[in-house]
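Protein modeling request. Please complete all fields; requests missing the sequence field cannot be processed.
Requester role: graduate student
Desired output: 3D structure, token encoding
Chains: 1
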Amino acid sequence: MENLKKKTFFTIFIIISLFAVFFATFFNVQTYHREHTGILNNLTRMRNLTMQRHEPLNKELKPMDAEELHNRKVMDYEVYTFILNDDNDIIDKISHSDNAISEEIITKAKNIIANNKASKIKIGCLYWNKYAYNYEEGNSLTIVNITNTRNMLLTNLLISLLLVGIGELVIYIISKKITEWITKPVVMSFNREKEFVANASHELKTPLAVMMASIDCLDINKKNEKWINNLKSEADRMSNLITRLLDLSKTEYLKKENFSKNDISMIIEKRALTFESLAYEKKITIENNIAQNVNFFCHKESIDELVAILIDNAISHGKENSKIKVNLGVSKNEIKLEIINEGDSIPESEYEKIFERFYRSDKSHNRKSGRYGLGLAIAKNIVNAHDGNIRAYSKDGYTTFEVKFKKNEH
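Delivered output (410 residues):
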């Protein structure tokens, strides 16, 4: 259920966030494109005006053209035109705005002329550059001061990032609310199902106990022995199933207030010892590699059951004359438990499915051994209740069940 909530939340959060980022990006790209086009148009327009010449050998502008060029004003940008002779010397300087031509602009113009061997237009990145220019060798140089444009674009970008940041917080809250609204019917249904399983198991336990006691009181003879044994066998199976259902129900309602500080090394070591006789019957050896004195804030009985389920599972699916490794390691922030056995491999497609309730990959094997596909579901509930992670995988004939807990000692 928690996984469903997380997936729903992240799906909603990512979709809404992508829309927010898209609109912010679209706004900034459109603004950038508009400013870039405006600068390019001004550079091109001024170049076209300066291409008008009086005579091929006399590069002075016509009087009318010169007056028109001097009077041409640009409202949105600081635009400067430098008229050049054949030697690329500046013979006239024109400001197309109310700003006077500063020494900085003149120096910039000289540097452009000195560093360019051919005609070119250069605008560059509007977020970084201070000037854009159109250099026509032996004719003119038009410079646009884009400082104000750069500052405006950077301001828009920063405001967009700030709004997206604030928007992410709002989107997070909205996503949580939408997730709760969407998953509420599923949560209610899931909780009703859990309550039903728990209540039904409790209700079935008493009449089943009466039935088993009544069966034990029956007189067995050659005629009814077969039927009475069948009744006992199925009653035992039902009793085991009800017990597992009750265990499953308990692990779904584990509360942190029932947790305490425990030596998890000792819990694992003791539980592993209880399975040595069962492993011996199948000619399996249990090898312990357990770090000592590892304290963990947990529900002691549940951790004990978790280890029992995993070792029992390893023995059940392990092959004869093999070894089961029980490893417990600890790092600065993590406690890792591994149960490794050699035997039946888990198909990769079932790595997640085996932790589902009543899932059995080999139904015939599990029925003969009295298994119902609840053990690993109980194990996962226990791990989730302790904010840990459990996974299973097979490689080179070995199957590993890996459990990770965040280290805590409270």
